[in-house]
């Protein structure tokens, strides 16, 4: 039989697996094969360096009941002394086993054991690789779309799936399309299953990182993002270096960067908001395009005062704007219209906000 160390190196190189991990699986395969050939009652071990297989027999007293119960694993001291004169109770006799000497049956059994354990190792390695990529963006080619409009995508060595619920409303894919998505989850179910998503806020963040060098280089951070896929999104941005405008850098000249991201998201509108550690200011900024008079935080609620002509803007079409602000800020937003006698003009309200932001 081919030298076992050569087999290990060949498997590791061919499958791109860790050499020591392959070695562990080979040891397991050798022991399992020996037990299958000789019997489960035998006690075997493999010497890690040489990878030679040995049977182990423990030396016990002559009247030990285990000798009768399991003669393959225990030997009487008097009998053991005939083989090794200075052996003592508790010592062990070892006998090297050569599976190849047992013929084709043993070799085939070892081959099947190796194949099984290496396949399991390969699956586990790939599983760990993609589990560590959850939340990262991947590219793939559409290979099938089923009757329920679930999309199956080939990425590297695996087939992933994009459920209909994780697809932006209105999107249609066909075989051959190359699409981007983030890995949403990885699990084992009769093999490795990789679920992709184009609707999660993480997908928006990954796209921004790919389009905006300042985000990729950590000069600008995406603090938080919220989406109603295909409709609207809001992202909170923070500069990590002086003289950087996080919103301007993300939007790009004439909106070229943010428009590229929006196009990938089926023309989703994206509001860029500069971060503030003051929750009142952050809520006011997030409610854009509405102009806010004031914000007061009470527990988990944000009381927002605004003039009546700004209320519809704060709420947004079908309530989208206020829903996104709630997701982004984690505050329940309560809008309070100012009395007409107290209401300010939009210009005055905007000026008040400007003065407030200058003091941040």
Can you describe what's shown?
- The chain is α+β, with helices and mostly antiparallel strands and 360 residues long.
- The chain folds into 4 domains: 4-131, N Utilization Substance Protein A, Chain:P, domain 4, CATH 3.30.1480; 138-197, Beta Barrel (OB fold (Dihydrolipoamide Acetyltransferase, E2P)), CATH 2.40.50; 200-275, 2-Layer Sandwich (GMP Synthetase, Chain A, domain 3); 278-360, K homology (KH) domain (GMP Synthetase, Chain A, domain 3, 2-Layer Sandwich).
- The protein is built from 13 helices and 15 strands.
- The chain has helices spanning 4-15, 19-38, 66-69, 77-81, 104-131, 201-211, 213-216, 246-251, 256-264, 279-286, 308-315, 320-329, 346-358, and strands spanning 44-46, 53-60, 74-76, 92-97, 137-145, 151-155, 158-162, 178-188, 192-197, 220-228, 232-239, 269-274, 294-298, 301-306, 332-337.
- The chain has a 5-stranded antiparallel sheet. Strands 1, 2, 3 and 4 form a 4-stranded mixed sheet that branches. The chain has a 3-stranded mixed sheet with strand order 10-11-12, sandwiched between helices.
- Helix 3 links the parallel strand 2 (53-60) and strand 3.
- Helix 1 (4-15) packs across helix 2 (19-38), helix 6 (201-211) packs across helix 9 and helix 10 (279-286) runs antiparallel to helix 12 (320-329).
- The radius of gyration is 34 Å and the shape is elongated.
- Mean pLDDT is 87; it is low at 343-347.
Please write out the topology.
Layout: H1 4-15, H2 19-38, E1 44-46, E2 53-60, H3 66-69, E3 74-76, H4 77-81, E4 92-97, H5 104-131, E5 137-145, E6 151-155, E7 158-162, E8 178-188, E9 192-197, H6 201-211, H7 213-216, E10 220-228, E11 232-239, H8 246-251, H9 256-264, E12 269-274, H10 279-286, E13 294-298, E14 301-306, H11 308-315, H12 320-329, E15 332-337, H13 346-358
Parallel strand pairs: 2-3, 11-12, 14-15
Antiparallel strand pairs: 1-2, 2-4, 5-6, 5-8, 6-7, 8-9, 10-11, 13-14
